[in-house]
Design goal:
single chain, 262 residues, alpha/beta, Rossmann fold, 2 domains, 4-stranded antiparallel beta sheet, 8 helices
């Protein structure tokens, strides 16, 4: 029996939504990739929002994702790229908790919060262990999670929050994405909610699609403990992709790590 792909709806609308959101993380990861010289492994590569920029910059990169729908979108994009870009990319279907590619990388990245889809301690340890297993001796692991603003995490249950709006079909239709938080769990440190993606022609609603999302949040001390348990240590940490300090004003927790000496 085929396992349902819980990211199928997100894959369908991913590029439109996140282009509208104007995320600022890709230049940060691109800079790391260039400085590393490659090869790069991106865990949770999705539809290639970051991966393709790195490949176009001349850096060889492998991409791993657990979602067939995400990888299908990315493969469709790759078909439209020049041959030299396609040659730099290798794609793998796999679970970030237990994959092994039998290859080591100068840089391993986990951009845009896939680690926040790991909801148990064992999942988190397994994911970081798998990432670290693919590092060269002097390699670096880089990833981001959001900074936990507790007043936001526990508030707004039942409210629809507008996240993005964009045009499709040459402007004939408009897509609007909201997120409704349905519950939160302070003990397990996660929240669950529903994406509501509505398509309009003018003011007429022509389609409504819904999908679920669950995300775990982390504290800084918790991240430090996970790093110790998985043989990693912090080289650099930031509170934004502009490399602002990781302090009480931060919106992100961004870590660059290396293997801890034996």
């Amino acid at each position: 029996m085929k396992t349902p792909d819980k990211y199928e709806l997100l894959a369908k609308h991913y590029d439109g939504a996140y282009e509208a959101m104007k995320l600022d993380d890709a230049p940060f990861y691109l800079d790391l990739a260039r400085k590393s010289g490659g090869p790069v492994l991106e865990i949770g590569c999705g539809t290639g929002r970051v991966l393709l920029r790195i490949a176009r910059a001349g850096v060889p990169i492998d991409g791993l994702d657990a979602s067939p729908a995400m990888l299908s979108v990315l493969r469709g994009k790759l078909e439209k790229e020049p041959a030299e870009v396609r040659r730099r990319v290798k794609l793998h279907a796999g679970d970030m908790r237990n994959f092994r590619l039998n290859k080591e990388f100068s840089l391993v990245t986990i951009p845009f919060r896939p680690l926040q889809h790991m909801h148990t301690l064992q999942d988190q340890l397994d994911a970081l262990t798998s990432a670290a297993a693919h590092l060269k001796t002097d390699g670096r692991l880089a990833f981001d999670v959001f900074f936990p603003r507790f007043e936001r995490l526990t508030g707004g249950v039942g409210e629809e929050q507008l996240e993005a709006e964009w045009q499709i079909e040459g402007g004939k239709r408009r897509v609007v994405r909201h997120f409704r938080k349905d519950s939160h769990d302070k003990i397990a440190q996660n929240f669950a909610g529903t994406f509501l993606i509505r398509t309009y022609e003018g003011d007429k609603l022509v389609r409504e699609e819904t999908g679920s999302l669950k995300m775990t949040w982390y504290t800084h001390g918790q991240m430090e403990a996970l790093f110790r348990l998985t043989g990693l240590e912090v080289v650099e940490e930031y509170g934004s992709f502009a490399k602002a300090p990781l302090d009480n004003k931060a919106e992100e927790m961004i870590f660059i790590l290396k293997k801890r000496p034996a």
